[in-house]
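Hi, here's the filled form for the chain we discussed.

Project: internal
Contact: R.S.
Residues: 183
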Amino acid sequence: MNAVAYAPRHRDELLGMLEETTNKIVEVMKTTMPQHAINLYTMLASAKALPVAVKGGPPPLNPLQYADFAADIIARLESTGFYEEARPLRRALMSGKLPVYDLARGYLLGDLDFIVSVSRELGAAEWIVAFLAAAVAAGAARAIRAVLESDRSLPALGQDATCPVCGRSLENGRCSFCLYAQR
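And the returned structure, exactly as it came back:
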């Protein structure tokens, strides 16, 4: 699901916000990712258990960090003109019932049924739940790619020409989701 394509308005602003938010998430994740998670991603890459971010899942950070990511995304959605659409997300976050980590994992796995299920449970539009999931999932995938790159463990391109980090299709040897680039 392309989270921005189904937005009723402000698609260009949402794309820019998605990119900015993802970059912030990457910086936090790179600096706070536990060593055991880095070891897991490195092991998955060396064992060719691809795509690494899908097999390993988002980094196991403190749940409050994931709540902070969601709060930032929700605030930005509200300030972009999606106040009413974001209200169910805000309520769920405030009551501790917004499964941010699980949404990111579901997005990485391509489990759209889970995203739809959460949106129905919250009474939120599917696209806005998918947007939140996509932002956190992209941040996680990019952080994993950056960590593997800095450890010189970045996996090579597989046989099927999909991204070895997140499993998305490559365009000209490059992944627009996690920013993997074929060397």
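Let me know if anything looks off before we file it.
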